[in-house]
Amino acid sequence: MVLPMKAAREIAARMKVAAVATVAAAIMAAGAAHAADTNVAVAANFTEPGKEIARLFEGKTGHKAILSFGATGQFYTQITQAAPFQVFLSADQTTPRKLVDDGLAVGDSPFTYAIGKLVLFSASAELVRGEQTLRDGKFERIAIANPVTAPYGAAAVEVMKALGAYERLAGKIVQGSNIAQTFQFVDTGNAELGFIALSQVIERPGGSRWIVTPGLYTPIRQDAVLLKNGAGNDAARAFVAFLKGPEALAVIEKYGYGVE
């Protein structure tokens, strides 16, 4: 049977559309087949920017970064005990290099992804008035992260010692296991004020704060590292590369961190 010319053209057009759809579906299926997950340990101060970067990463690459948040020192212990992380975003430089020395991280992979800023914060609009707040000590409790496991806690101790206030304030210190718990102490009023990361309150209105003078503490250079567990994982390697790119850097700066 010979089809009329118009009908033949319509059938050909439908076949072309179907072929394009089939090719598109094949491409999407191939992309899905290559997509992978990576388990990323993230220092607690980087919680909000970490979540935002992970969303951008998944949208751009199809890979998924599964984030866990906690204190740097605790993550180090977990990684040495075979925790299944493939990438580690530390709150310091020392810990990633220790993992390289331990043979648990790829030797040339550590790099500084953010430079943290310490802030003294209170939910009260009147309490924090610069370093004089610490010198006066007119409060009952001040929160810091555990200085043994959390670099922001170590920086807080440095600041109090540099101002000659540590001995006087030691009895008023309450410790959070990490910087996230430290913020909770301040946010809920269990401590009138506390040392936290600027990123935790940069978008929060109200309260009172002092962005601590950088010269009062060692710069908080935060390094990321590709762990040996992730050396063969496409998603892990892609996440490390994405963290160095313009989209991630824009998020990092938005939350108040310095970048190189």
Helix and strand run: HEHEHEHEEHEHHEHEEEHH
CATH class of the largest domain: Alpha Beta
As for the number of domains, it is 2
Strand residue content: 15-25%
The CATH level-2 architecture of the largest domain is identified as 3-Layer(aba) Sandwich
Q: Which term fits the overall shape?
A: elongated
Percentage of residues in helical conformation = 40-55%
- Give unreliable regions as ranges: 15-33
The CATH fourth-level homologous superfamily of the largest domain: Periplasmic binding protein-like II
Head-to-tail CA distance between termini: 72 Å
> Which strand order does the major sheet show?
2-1-3-10-4
Rg over CA atoms: 25 Å
Mean pLDDT across residues: 90
Description:
- There is one protein chain.
- With 260 residues, the chain is of the alpha/beta class.
- The protein has two domains: 115 residues, Periplasmic binding protein-like II (D-Maltodextrin-Binding Protein, domain 2, 3-Layer(aba) Sandwich), CATH 3.40.190.10; 101 residues, 3-Layer(aba) Sandwich (D-Maltodextrin-Binding Protein, domain 2), CATH 3.40.190.10.
- 43% of the residues lie in helices and 20% in strands.
- The protein contains ten helices and ten strands.
- A five-stranded mixed β-sheet has the order 2-1-3-10-4, with helices on both faces. It has a five-stranded mixed β-sheet with strand order 7-6-8-5-9.
- It is elongated, with a radius of gyration of 25 Å.
- About 7% of the residues have low confidence.
